[in-house]
Amino acid sequence: MTTTVLVLVETINEYLHIIESNDFHVILAPTPAERAQAIKAHGAQIKAVLTRGPLGLYAEEIAALPVLEIICVIGAGYEHVDLQAASNRGIVVTNGAGVNAPSVADHAMALLLSLVRGIPQTDAAVRRSEWPKVMRPSLGGKQLGILGLGAVAWRSPGVRLWGSACRSATTTVSPAMTWTTPTAPRRWNWRAPRTS
What we know:
The protein has 196 residues and is an alpha/beta fold.
């Protein structure tokens, strides 16, 4: 039997054929108008919803989907999914916390290197047929402090790479802006794990 999936996410078009080839009927509704129309027209058949945190799924929408079994949220956030309404109906809510953590952390490290080495400015100068003779600093041997080192950064190969090149000190800031002490020595001299 084919399962009907309401897809609210606008960025997965290249993967829709994979979903459809696995015996799922996909209803694509990335705009608010299409979403409302899809729920109105097909609500009785929709068993799964694929969404993102900012798009969410609201209580009145959940109520209009009588056979809904699962709400899949792409990414970590589920801020606009009505968890209470889902829980009241026994609907499973999943999210992809940490799935893109390595990519996000690597991008942060790339931005850091770009800033320190002035890559955008140097690139623009070279495109103007200039070759600036400015000495840029290296991060090797420098102290690197990272605030909010959580799941994103620890899963990044970039953090391990930079951690082995720099003396790094890290901490986490709670939402109330109070400092918490990680379970590590006060003075950190983090080294990348040895590989054989």
